[in-house]
Amino acid sequence: MIQFERILYPTDFSDSAENASQYVISLAKKYGSKIHVLHVVEPFTYTSDFGIDYSAQYREMEVTAKRLIGEIVTSLKKSNLDAEGAVLSGEPFVEIIRYARQENADLIVMATHGRKGIEHMLLGSVAERVVRKSLCPVLTVKKTGQTFTMP
Known about the structure:
The protein is of the alpha/beta class. It has a single domain (6-141), classed as Rossmann fold (3-Layer(aba) Sandwich). Helices cover 47% and strands 20% of the residues. It is globular and about 55 Å long. Mean pLDDT is 87; it is low at 118-123.
């Protein structure tokens, strides 16, 4: 029998991620799962190239992420769900995979953003990389209203 004792919910706080949270909540209620809410703050990699110090902005991003993760966890707990949150720093897909392994996640539920063309080529897809590299199943949730046009 399939059991999802630990569900990892990576979020970037977007509307798409909010949509994915509905799947997380539904699955957690059905299986009695613990929800791990995760946000990864991506460091500025180009700061030294231009001699600009972005450390204050980065710290602000971390503080904001911790506050938002705390709000999500509090909301989940008010709904009688077992939840904990974490904010990590690094390459998002790498940290998601690392955290899933560390916490023995049974399932990762995350949003896709539906990027196309040059935007997808330049930015890539965190969800796509997680699907390819994860040791556990990954449920990807398309943003509401996203359509597919046949080539």
